[in-house]
Amino acid sequence: MSRVVSFTLFGFETTRAKAWALGQMAVAKRQFRRIPGLEFFKLMGTGAGAGFSARPDFGTFTFFGVWPGVNEARNALENAPVHQRYLEQAGRFMTFFLEPVSARGSWDGYQVPVADGRRVQHTPVVALTRATIRPECAFSFWRHVSAISDQAERDAAQCFMIGTGELPWVRQVTFSIWTDEDAMQRFSLDTPNHGVAARKAYAENWFAESCFARFNLMDMVGAWPGAERIPFSSLSAAANRAASLRDQHNHTRETPVQ
Q1: pTM
Q2: What is the mean pLDDT of residues 6-33?
Q3: Which of 7, 110, 150, 230 has its CA 20 to 30 A from that of 39?
Q4: Per 3-state DSSP, what percentage of the chain is helix, strand, and coil (rounded to 5)?
């Protein structure tokens, strides 16, 4: 069975809460490591605006976690003291529960796990891109970021997007949600800004490590500005999940015994 990923946004409004969140970057990781079932995680900051600025946003932090299943993820997050403290300090939050559909590359040597067999991509499409940028290539990377971000904001097929990362300027993550896979691929490969930058990145070896993963959206909890644009409901999530299970079952039946 495929693992489940949770991605949480925390928004801090007061100066005191922002200072608390910044301080937690140094101490909370040890507490997150103690959460039962948490296989892999990252606690990250964001840039200003939609997260793609070189200037930090001390009011927005993110958490990425990999769990054995959705029930384990929910129970752990609901009961972990460190997560509850984040919720108490935050003025708003949103958690996305995600089913990995495909993944290539690695994140600090970790490969996002996808279950054996066929995985069906449902809509909306959730994408995560993560890269460790070589220091000598950071300027080349960042000179493209503003234009790409502006173009993504204007794209009608883009439902939600935020830039985050483990280390300013050189360890960057983009989390985005699209109406469908074709729209996501079109933006990634064919638009003038992102398409050109992507080809340059690989031709000139900008990245020391990179990871690209796609997910099905299983559930959303909380509230966040812009999230109302995401075409999602609990009924569609249940239908998508049932379709995934049905497809896995059919694939198992069709696979001949070796």
Answers
A1: 0.86
A2: 97
A3: 230
A4: 40, 35, 25
